[in-house]
Amino acid sequence: MLILECPYCGVKAEETELSPGYEAHLKRYGPGASDDEFESYMFARKNPKGVHFERWRHVYGCGKWFLAARCTATLEVFGTYPAQTSAPPPDLIEAIKAKRPGWEGYK
Amino acid sequence: MSARLAKGGRLIDRSKAHRFTFNCKWMRGFEGDTLSAALLANDQMLVGRSFKYHRPRGIVASGPEEPNGLVNLGKGDRLEPNQRTTTTELFDGLTAESQNHWPSLENDIGVVNNYAARFLPAGFYYKTFLQPRAAWKHVFEPIVRHSAGLGKAPKDRDADRYEQAYAFCDVLVIGGGVAGLQAALVAGRSGARVMLLEQTGHWGGRAPVDGVEIDGQPADAWVKTTVQALEAMENVTLRKRCMGAGVYDHGYVLADEKVADHTPGDGRPKHRLWRIRAGRIIAATGAIERPLSFAGNDIPGVMLAAAVRDYVVNFAVSPGDRTVVVTNNDDAYRTAIALHQAGLSVPVILDARLTATGALPEQARKLGIRVETNRAIAMVQGGKRVKRVSICAQAGEGAVLEEIACEAVAMSGGWSPVVHLWSHCGGKLIWDEATACFRPDAARPPLNHDGSAMVIAAGAANGALPAADTLADAHRAGEAASKPAGEAPKATAAEEAPMEAVWLMPQGAPVKLRAKAWLDYQNDVKVSDVQLAAREGYESVEHTKRYTTLGMATDQGKLSNINGLAVLADALNEHIPQVGTTTFRPPYTPVTFGALAGEARGEIFQPLRRTPMHDWHDAHGAYWEPVGLWRRPYCYTQGGESHEKSVHREVLNVRNNVGLLDASTLGKIIVKGPDAGRFLDMLYTGVMSTLPIGKCRYGLMCNENGFLSDDGVVARIDEDTWLCHTTSGGADRIHAHMEDWLQCEWWDWQVWTANVTEQYAQVAVVGPNARKLLEKLGGMDVSKETLPFMQWADGMLGGFRARVYRISFSGELSYEIAIPASEGRAFWEACLAAGAEFGVMPYGTEALHVLRAEKGFIMIGDETDGTVIPQDLGLGWAISKKKADYLGKRGQERSFLADPDRWKLVGLETLDGSVIPDGAIAVAEGKNANGQRNTQGRVTSSYHSPTLGKGIAMGLVLRGPDRMGEVLDFPKIGGGSVKARIVDQVFYDKEGAKQNV
């Protein structure tokens, strides 16, 4: 059972307080998008063995959505940050690169 | 015969005798006995039957690895199947029954399987049940169902209660042997918050039985002082009878404390499930001795050497007058010495090694015990108990050199560290060639949230088997989990010479012997079965496990794992580490469902949501229907009428007079802010931003896939405030959906949402007399002119602060009135009083459904199932053609959703007036690739309409709206079919005359 620190209220929240929202930093494709773009937005998910950026909601806490960078293989958590951004914070990227030299980046 | 010795027994209290029954036979034991010890003390060597061949089975072990001693414990509302006799503490009045036999343990018919064993090899069931298919259904399955299963399932409601507790600590030590005690002591002295768990009722583990000395004093004395020191520390919590069941992500541990298993009915909870969050976990879980694989190693009386020692030293139980010891290591000599010291005979120690010159063999020789090297057991003879052993050379193929009469055999194939907790969360293992076991690889531990090691293995669980190493290793583990703590105490025990791996005895045993050499006693897996699996191509250990059932059921790799792997590796001509192990999964030993459920059962299994009028409904004949966590009245029964009659009466009363519906469960979400209109335009398929203040509009919400997700009426409250009604079950989901989009996609839009569902009670006043009722209450102008259809107004109604919506889900003149929740019940009763002269009656959810179906209104969850778009339901009018975007718009543009050949909503009218079964399928000509009838539609709602006096239905039918008047065939379950005509889905008052008054 994971523990993730909510970047809004600072609570080290247990997984039972959270609800998952799958992959983070998806770009929404609406009307006018090609079939391929829409398909990749709706259905294609990364599912890596390793560093993964994902959405969580502190649903039984402050109610805020936040994003987390986590290793899906070891469950190591590299950091959490507010959802109101389209890219991870640069210092978090650096920290992950330091720990996972072979990491290919979040995109 | 096994029996109680006249003296000794470090754990029993001879002054307190307990009476108990086994298979209805009265027996006697002592306080401190395990059930196993007490059974053996009463010469009950036979305790069960094996699963497949029904062979006689006796007690093998003295701990949780016991494969055979599984009993139905207790009776009636306290019956528990599959309880291990080795871990069950004896109490006065205990009742136990053996399992897996018929008609009795002594005379079992299933044992014929034993004689057919050569026809029941590994994978027998898989091979046999493939063909013919009919044989499976009519012959094999009934037989297997009759014979399968260990133990009896309890039939009564559990009389006991269970509780759960949460705990947090810096260091959690699992295992209360000397290693666990030392690790806890080191961590405790550092000031860390420490929890120490021990699965049995005693501290100290094996060390006192094995004659270990610590810092010059006997282990027992050191254990006592150490426990006292720990108990004196405020930062240390000690729990006995508490089994560390599983290690999960980020230091989460489940532990099952057997509070009152040994004192049933004393008022305490039976178990307490601990949910622990630990900074660091020390697994000091010890090691389990391995059996040796020789023919007849499953006959009652063949036991693990350390278990024999435990029974003699701890419980003063003799396994028999003469015990043959067979081993590949020095440790088993301790058993021979313990038996000798108890005055029992050890006719011979058979050592598979070529030499045995260590301190323990020498001590045994000095005591006059005969020691033979390069010797093995060719075969144990006996049926329900051991009679004699035939001895052969380990190097040979089983030629008998000598036969020795004996009552018991103590075997030791070396020790395997208990690596379960280390492995649960991904800790890796390495193969230790010297001790022939897998042990934790400290370089690859399971990780914590910060990437540090979550679990530290300590002592024997870390492969540090000799007592001196165990204590030093545990000291180091305690330091690693807290801080350096100086010198470790010194443990001393007799030096042990290296063991030698022995996977088959004798090494060249022919198939006749291999087919009697058991690896897994419970599931009847023999050396020959694993070899057969390898020959048939099962190379993966996980596949072999499932094919042969090796290590399945309660064993979970405790006793059989390594021996099975070694045999498989040998058959595949691989090294053991290349073959690997099966996966260790929680729980370590079974945790009863009662403990997992805790207090969450019966009325408090889940929260119950009550509307403000709940108690009134309950007092007035409500027949409850669960709707999510809510309870809503399905109908209100009067006199002795059936539910069907109630619904009938309620529907007609709404159509003819006036009905009251408690609509409080309806979702109510306030959406407010400068960008609220723009936000709602994205959320709904229609346009909400243009809705004038004071008006209502029906809206549909889709997900990004385009599928209809929820519907409801939206009211514009003021310039920047809207109130969105959702379905009863959808309020929380839709509120979360709104927050998701607001926080994660349009975070720069100024919008706030609030779910006020429970802040308001809502009453629907429905029927031709609805206006009269409201006028009687008085205070507001609810006339057609002032409050027309699809408008709302605030005011004081009958003295209540009310918001009145003129909306209708029934086709009748209808008002929905929201009042503060605290006034809901009073308002409800005021409506009933005011409406008495107009024939008012409450109605329930079923009448609501019938009324809406008569009008052809859809219901989310009936007409929709997550694959239906609004266009399928003829709701194109509620979709804006002008908007550039809304959630689901791009999804709906996909070719298969825009296809005209979709199943679409229509009404269905049976030719004979009957009610079509809900969910019935309309068949089409021809058959599909699987030989099933093609389909062309299905029924989504079906009711008897009291208003029309016939069955009415709605359904989704292929190009339905284009096929008005066609007759479809709906086969019924159990034969026959119903014919129904495609009609318009509005069955009643098509013009809407009744609601526009």
TrEMBL record, chain A:
Pfam family of the protein (one): SoxD
Molecular functions per Gene Ontology: sarcosine oxidase activity
GO BP of this protein: tetrahydrofolate metabolic process
Residue spans crossing the bilayer: none
Protein's UniProt name: Sarcosine oxidase subunit delta
TrEMBL record, chain B:
Cofactor(s) demanded: FAD
Keyword annotations: Oxidoreductase
Coiled coil residues, start to end: none
All copies of domain GCVT N-terminal, residue ranges: 613-883
FAD/NAD(P)-binding domain mapped to chain residues: 170-419
Domain SoxA A3 as annotated: residue spans: 516-598
Superkingdom, taxonomy of origin: Bacteria
Stretches assigned to the Aminomethyltransferase C-terminal domain: 904-989
InterPro entries listed in its UniProt record: 2Fe-2S-bd_N (IPR042204), FAD/NAD-bd_sf (IPR036188), FAD/NAD-binding_dom (IPR023753), Flavin_amine_oxidase (IPR001613), GcvT/YgfZ/DmdA (IPR028896), GcvT/YgfZ_C (IPR029043), GcvT_C (IPR013977), GCVT_N (IPR006222)
Single GO biological process annotation from the record: tetrahydrofolate metabolic process
A GO MF label: sarcosine oxidase activity
Family per similarity comment: Belongs to the GcvT family.
UniProt-listed PANTHER family: AMINOMETHYLTRANSFERASE, AMINOMETHYLTRANSFERASE, MITOCHONDRIAL
Protein name in the entry: Sarcosine oxidase subunit alpha family protein
Natural source organism: Cereibacter changlensis JA139
Highest classification ranks of the organism: Bacteria, Pseudomonadati, Pseudomonadota, Alphaproteobacteria, Rhodobacterales
